[in-house]
């Protein structure tokens, strides 16, 4: 119960990406839930052999470290190595609240997501990068305007991750992003 109570704190972590209606920033709890739903709805775009149940589990826990480390906006400037160390310490603390084997399982799953080397993790990471551009498009630019980015920045920081785990999703959204920046 201590872990579940601690996890509730994720709802207090605001992200750079706005809700689709642009009314306020999304919080990390909402983001994690939304990504799990993305996996359920868009699972047909996963490469063969991807275990959607594992992907959903990854997506539900992937940002719990933000309880301690905060959100690191994809277009923000931060020390990547320092942020990774902060998140790893947070993962050990937060998943350490669970019973031994369960905590170890959650930590292993989180580390797999972060490494993005397995087919499951690549697809999960692609969804993590696919959702924000959809919300930015729906909200009239969202964090793209806030961070003054261009298409090439989006393609580099987001597109490559999407294409790595779900090429058809990048093929679908890339023209929409390009059209937004051309307008």
Defining traits:
single chain, 183 residues, mainly alpha, 4% strand, 10 helices
Describe this structure in words.
With 183 residues, the protein is mainly alpha-helical. The chain has one domain: Hypothetical protein af1432 (Orthogonal Bundle), CATH 1.10.3210. Helices cover 67% and strands 4% of the residues. It has helices spanning 2-7, 28-42, 52-61, 66-69, 80-95, 100-115, 119-138, 142-146, 151-165, 167-182; strands spanning 14-18, 25-27. It has a two-stranded antiparallel sheet. Helix 3 packs across helix 6, helix 6 packs across helix 7 and helix 7 runs antiparallel to helix 9 (151-165). The longest helix has 20 residues, at 119-138. It is globular and about 55 Å long. It starts with a helix and ends with a helix. Keywords: Hydrolase, Metal-binding. InterPro entries: HD_domain, YfbR/HDDC2. This is Putative hydrolases of HD superfamily.
């Amino acid at each position: 119960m201590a872990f579940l109570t601690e996890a509730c704190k994720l709802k207090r972590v605001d992200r750079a990406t706005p809700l689709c209606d642009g009314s306020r920033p999304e919080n990390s709890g909402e983001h994690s839930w939304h990504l799990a739903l993305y996996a359920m709805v868009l699972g047909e775009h996963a490469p063969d052999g991807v275990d959607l149940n594992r992907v959903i589990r990854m997506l539900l826990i992937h940002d719990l470290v933000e309880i301690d480390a905060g959100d690191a906006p994809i277009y923000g400037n931060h020390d990547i190595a320092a942020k990774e160390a902060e998140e790893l310490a947070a993962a050990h603390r937060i998943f350490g609240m669970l019973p031994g084997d369960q905590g170890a399982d959650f930590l292993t799953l989180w580390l797999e997501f972060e490494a993005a080397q397995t087919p499951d993790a690549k697809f999960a990471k692609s969804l993590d990068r696919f959702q924000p551009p959809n919300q930015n498009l729906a909200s009239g630019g969202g964090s793209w305007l806030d961070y003054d980015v261009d298409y090439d920045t989006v393609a580099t920081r987001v597109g490559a991750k999407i294409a790595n785990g779900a090429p058809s999703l990048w093929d679908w959204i890339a023209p929409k992003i390009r059209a937004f920046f051309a307008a």
